[in-house]
Design brief:
The chain contains 16 helices and 23 strands. The protein is an alpha+beta fold and 465 residues long. The chain has 2 domains: 236 residues, Glutamine Phosphoribosylpyrophosphate, subunit 1, domain 1 (4-Layer Sandwich), CATH 3.60.20; 184 residues, Rossmann fold (3-Layer(aba) Sandwich). The strands form 6 sheets. It has a 7-stranded antiparallel beta sheet with strand order 3-2-4-1-10-9-11. Strands 5-6-7-8-12-13 form a 6-stranded antiparallel beta sheet. The chain has a 4-stranded parallel beta sheet with strand order 17-20-21-22, with helices on both faces. The longest helix is centred in the middle third of the chain and has 15 residues.
Length: 465
């Protein structure tokens, strides 16, 4: 995890992808992608980029930073085209700030210009990269995306559509892809559906996105989710799709509902806000203490806190105010200043907190550092009791599918009991939502739950685990 003091107790998602295709010459794909990436900024805040085409000429812009920093009216005006893909990236540990790894990646092959953007993590990246290098492939980044691009380019005698399918069949892990040439847009979702991808429309333009919220922000419509294992091709002949042959049991990452996705997104037929609210209801049924008010840790605790209040009868209040102008901060203050880190991001409403028994709702505890600081801050403000409720089970196992928790040492629940965690964060009580409660809230069981159970849907190769 990063030493980002205001966010150090949160899970990190890998990326967000977005794509646009239109037959209309007047379509400004760059402007649609720009707004789409803004809508997906929560999925990645290290770098941003896009590639666009007018059907003949392909142009690109990418850099380290937020969408608002990478793009401006001047460079957007130069990105003329009706087809394009975009990407926001959350760098893995050790590669932050490395502009060469910013996506989409673009290169030339027998099929012309090829650009690829990827959300997910490849378990067999090292093996595939070694194989490609032995064939003479050159690499300029450390990403799995470049492996995918080289795989596609390697099927030089196949059609683009077949080359993409053949390349995807070689991949092990999680992946949602948007791929483009000068005149074609392709979307691919891995056979288990571990990462989300959906299809939408704005006017005549068809779009692919990690989340449906981007379509509604653009004033468009959500058509449907891309199915696990589905390959969607959009070109001058319209839209068509087919499925990869290796059908697998579905295993969407459950943290899309718990934490990653925006609450106004719908993923695989389930609205994120409604799912989180249902988690809060189940959490209230498992809670066994008296309290005066329930408050969320904004923003991802809000929906669950509303559901908790609804069932428990404990009044909902906005007890922590989030500073909307902070964004991500990479300041590394001196040790004696670290207590200010949480207050820069969140500040309590003292009149609500003082002398009250507080239920505070959050989505996860990763290391316990920020959680402990929030509780300490509330006690300093005068809270009489603090009952910490987490709308998910304990995160006790590392993830190898695209969430930045591949080191068990980072996870406080890996080697501490619930009571030990309670003492560590100095709460008066600690209630996690049970696994059964989580599954009941979501209403289905076809999810990857490995970070709770250690039961990985894809075998983890030796040397990675």
């Amino acid at each position: 995890m990063k030493e980002d003091f205001a966010f150090e107790d949160q899970l990190e998602e890998a990326c967000g992808v977005f794509g646009v295709y239109s037959d209309q010459e007047q379509t400004r794909a760059a402007e649609l992608i720009y707004i789409g990436l803004f809508s997906l900024q929560h999925r990645g805040q290290e770098s941003a980029g896009m590639v666009v085409s007018d059907g003949q000429r392909v142009l690109a812009q990418k850099d380290v930073g937020l969408v608002s920093g990478v793009f401006n009216p001047d460079n957007l005006s130069k990105l003329k085209g009706r087809i394009g893909i975009g990407h926001v990236r959350q760098a893995s540990s050790g590669s932050a700030g490395y502009v060469a790894n910013a996506e989409p990646l673009m290169g030339r092959c027998s099929k012309g210009v090829l650009a690829v953007a990827h959300n997910g993590s490849l378990l067999n990246k090292t093996e595939l990269r070694r194989e490609l290098e032995e064939r003479g492939a050159l690499f300029q980044t450390s990403t799995g995306t470049e492996v995918i691009m080289n795989l596609i380019a390697g099927f030089s005698k196949e059609t683009l559509e077949d080359a993409v399918a053949l390349a995807a069949s070689r991949l092990e892990g999680s992946f949602s892809l948007v791929i483009m040439t000068k005149d074609t847009l392709i979307g691919v979702r891995d056979p288990r559906g571990m990462r989300p991808l959906c299809l939408g429309r704005v006017g005549e333009a068809l779009m692919l996105s990690s989340e449906s919220c981007a379509f509604s922000v653009l004033g468009g419509e959500f058509i449907r989710d891309v199915e696990p294992g589905e390959v969607i091709i959009i070109d001058q002949n319209g839209l068509r799709s087919h499925f990869l042959e290796n059908e697998k049991e579905k295993a969407l990452c459950v943290f899309e509902y718990i934490y990653f996705a925006r609450p106004d997104s719908t993923i695989d037929g389930l609205n994120v806000h409604q799912a989180r609210k249902a988690m809060g209801r189940e959490l209230a049924r498992e809670f066994s203490y008296d309290a005066d008010i329930v408050i969320p840790v904004p923003d991802t605790g809000v929906s669950a806190a509303l559901g908790f209040s609804e069932v428990s009868g404990i009044p909902y209040e906005v007890g922590l105010i989030k500073n909307p102008y902070v964004g991500r901060t990479f300041i590394r203050p001196r040790q004696e200043q670290r207590s200010l880190g949480v207050r820069i991001k969140l500040n309590p409403v003292a009149e609500l907190i003082k002398d009250r028994r507080i239920v505070i709702i959050d989505d996860t505890i990763v290391r316990g550092t920020t959680t402990g600081k929030i509780i300490h801050m509330l006690k300093e403000t005068g809270a009489r009791e603090i009952h910490l409720c987490i709308s998910a089970p304990p995160v006790a196992k590392p993830c190898f599918y695209g969430i930045d928790t591949s080191n068990t040492k980072e996870l406080i629940a890996a080697d501490h009991s619930v009571e030990e965690i309670r003492k560590h964060v100095e709460a008066d009580s600690l209630t996690y939502l049970s696994l059964e409660g989580l599954q009941k809230a979501i209403g289905r069981k076809s999810f990857c739950l490995a970070c709770f159970t250690g039961e990985y849907p894809i075998k983890i190769p030796e040397g990675i685990a």
